[in-house]
């Protein structure tokens, strides 16, 4: 699982605005299956069509599995709302339907141009 620093709300150069979907329900139960962030990233990748040649896993600059305070989470970039509103609505509905907390956060931009194309740098 990728680890990108989540940095709260303070302005940081190069940071991207987004949302963290936590893998612990409001009732404090761990969400299962354990690979849910990777699976949801794969679904988002299908929505936005960002499959890359030579990369055998689903990945997109718009959503990334992360670990926050020892909890598996999914960071979803605010940009997803503009790029594919249906994907954004799907992932937020997923969080609501599964009682998963969503926090507004910032993350450092770590995507490389080789993986995600020139627009990601």
Note down, in words, how this protein is organized:
The protein has 121 residues and is an alpha+beta fold. The protein has one domain (15-113): Alpha-Beta Plaits. 29% of the residues lie in helices and 23% in strands. It is built from four helices and four strands; from the N terminus they run βαββααβα. A hairpin with a 2-residue loop joins strand 2 and strand 3 (71-77). The radius of gyration is 14 Å and the shape is globular. Pfam families: DUF3579. This is DUF3579 domain-containing protein. It comes from Paraburkholderia phenoliruptrix.
Helix content: 25-40%
What profile does the largest beta sheet have?
Answer: 4 strands, antiparallel
Question: Taking Cα atoms only, what radius of gyration do you get, to the nearest Å?
Answer: 14 Å
The CATH topology: Alpha-Beta Plaits
Assign the CATH class: Alpha Beta
Low-confidence stretches: 112-121
Tally of discrete structural domains: 1
Mean pLDDT: 80
Global shape:
globular
N-end to C-end Cα span = 21 Å
Number of helical stretches of at least 4 residues? 4
Order of helices and strands: EHEEHHEH
Q: Which superfamily, in CATH terms, is the homologous superfamily? A: Uncharacterised protein PF12112 family, DUF3579
List how many beta strands DSSP finds: 4
Decide which structural class fits the backbone. alpha+beta
In what range is the share of β-strand residues?
Answer: 15-25%
InterPro entries: DUF3579
Pfam families: DUF3579
Protein name: DUF3579 domain-containing protein
């Amino acid at each position: 699982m990728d680890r990108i620093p989540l940095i709260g709300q303070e302005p940081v150069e190069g940071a991207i605005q987004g949302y963290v979907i936590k893998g612990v329900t409001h009732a404090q139960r761990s969400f299962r299956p354990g690979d849910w962030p990777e699976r949801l990233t794969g679904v988002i990748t299908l929505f936005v069509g960002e499959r890359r040649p030579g990369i055998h896993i689903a990945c997109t600059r718009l959503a990334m599995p992360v670990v926050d305070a020892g909890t598996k989470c999914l960071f979803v970039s605010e940009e997803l709302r503009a790029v594919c509103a249906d994907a954004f609505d799907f992932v937020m509905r997923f969080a609501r339907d599964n009682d998963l907390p969503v926090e507004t956060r910032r993350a450092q931009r770590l995507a490389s141009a080789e993986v995600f194309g020139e627009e990601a740098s």
